[in-house]
Amino acid sequence: MEKYSLKNQIEKVLRGENTSFLNPIDANYVINGLKKNNVGYKVFRLFLESEKLIIYRDRLAITLFEIITASQLTHREILGAFFSHNLCEDVFGDIIVDDDRYYIVVLNKVKKELIYSFDNIGKKKVKLVERDLDTVKGYHLKFREIRLHVSSLRIDGIISKLVPTSRSVSNEMISLKKVIVNYQILKNRNYTLKDNDIFSIRGVGKFRLVEVLSKTKTNKYIIVIYKYI
Q1: Architecture of the domain defined by 143-228
Q2: Which of 37, 93, 142, 221 could form a disulfide with 52 if both were Cys (CB 3.0 to 4.6 A apart)?
Q3: pLDDT tens digits for range 178-217
Q4: What are the b/e assignments for 204-220, b being 16+ CB within 10 Å?
Q5: What is the pLDDT of residue 4?
Q6: Domain 62-136 maps to which CATH number in 1.10.10.10, 3.40.50.720, 3.40.50.300, 3.30.70.330?
């Protein structure tokens, strides 16, 4: 978000409202603004690894919907359907695809509109049903653990192992803005990953560097990466 929009988000909390859905970087901006005003706050995330957060003081004006359908849906299909309803990404949170159950949390200001108009995703018939937030309590993103031997923690080298490809192609992907680290487009191809850095490679997937286990006798790092699925 632009700074003026983030300042509006701070004003919302000061008025006792909740913010829109924010990425972690924008959420930190709002939190710092509230701290300067000596205002207490709470942070809502739908599940532990949620990328979209809400900052609030007392009450949340949000609704959790389960998407009921006889068909199988993908995260991409659900996301595309919400954008096709001309909804901005700050009015809905993370999408949960848990086997054959699908959930999404939205701001209450779009709740009625969705109930009356959201009846299909592509050619698949769907229905939105309100659920208690506790319905998804304890949900975690699914992931596959990957262990790599790398000569350094530079992201271009790690990308070349994950894709897999050459380091020059990795650098080209960075130049083409296909790599996002901690919710920002990566500009520094020499960036060194740190524990719990989250990064995405367009067309490949989303990853998190969990930890550096050790070094080998040949001075290579053994690292653990989660690839979210």
Answers
A1: Roll (3.10)
A2: 93
A3: 999 988 899 998 999 999 999 999 989 999 999 999 888 8
A4: eebbbbbeeeeeeeeee
A5: 83
A6: 3.30.70.330
